[in-house]
């Protein structure tokens, strides 16, 4: 029998193996160009990933460490983050099979409700795939608050350009939203996505918003079939000529 420590090591190894399989054979890592970036630090607990404090000006315009084959860059946000301890979490969840990469805006303190604070703001960021053989195929843009809220709105849009002018999925305004279903964007074959979240939570909101979350999935670029070798072309041509000769002979008979 395995003792308690052995069981713990076995479970930890299984989780690490699952993550490695999900990431295409490479476990969580950060290359030398990203690992030393000060604003980002390891996310404690599960799921694994990284955090960045939005009240820290150095959080912006710095690439996160690479998570699997992706990194994020927080581009711009409203000034309301300066007065709070809000955090961005970039994590990967193996249990979310279709969209395992998660970008979460974690409000601290929560927004809305008579006992909390009202807030209107936005955040813009980009998420990039480093593997040239992969592109985004699925995305889920939504609110994952644990409380059903009234009188607040969230606008989520996805763009293909850094100027946020070419929409990929214009979802428009979501009132009291729950997390929408996964949406396919495979046809765009994008390796970089630009996301713009806008929220408005009044003081009189019934309940609180504790976080906003967007999740992403990817797939492989299908291989382009190469040209037939000359030997294969010649063989195919010879076979075609023999078939035509047989048909012609059968007609003459």
Lay out the secondary structure.
Layout: H1 4-22, H2 32-35, E1 40-42, E2 48-53, E3 70-77, E4 87-92, E5 101-111, E6 119-129, E7 134-143, E8 153-159, E9 167-175, E10 183-184, E11 192-201, E12 209-220, H3 230-252
Antiparallel strand pairs: 1-2, 2-4, 3-6, 4-5, 5-12, 6-11, 7-10, 7-12, 8-9, 8-11
Report on this model:
The chain is of the alpha+beta class and 253 residues long. It has one domain (26-220). The chain is built from three helices and twelve strands. It has helices at residues 4-22, 32-35, 230-252, and strands at 40-42, 48-53, 70-77, 87-92, 101-111, 119-129, 134-143, 153-159, 167-175, 183-184, 192-201, 209-220. Strands 1-2-4-5-12-7-10 form a seven-stranded antiparallel β-sheet, with no helix packed on it. The protein has a five-stranded antiparallel β-sheet with strand order 3-6-11-8-9, with no helix packed on it. It is elongated, with a radius of gyration of 25 Å. 28% of the residues are buried.
The percent of residues in helical segments reads 10-25%
Cα(first) to Cα(last) distance is 81 Å
- Overall geometric form: elongated
Lateral arrangement of strands in the main beta sheet:
1-2-4-5-12-7-10
Tell me the β content.
35-45%
> Number of helical runs?
3
Measured on Cα atoms, how large is the radius of gyration?
25 Å
Q: Describe the biggest sheet?
A: 7 strands, antiparallel
Overall average pLDDT: 75
Q: Briefly note the structural class of the backbone.
A: alpha+beta
What kind of oligomer do you see? single chain
Number of strands: 12
Order of helices and strands: HHEEEEEEEEEEEEH
Uncertain stretches of 5 or more adjacent residues:
1-36
Summed up, the domain count is 1
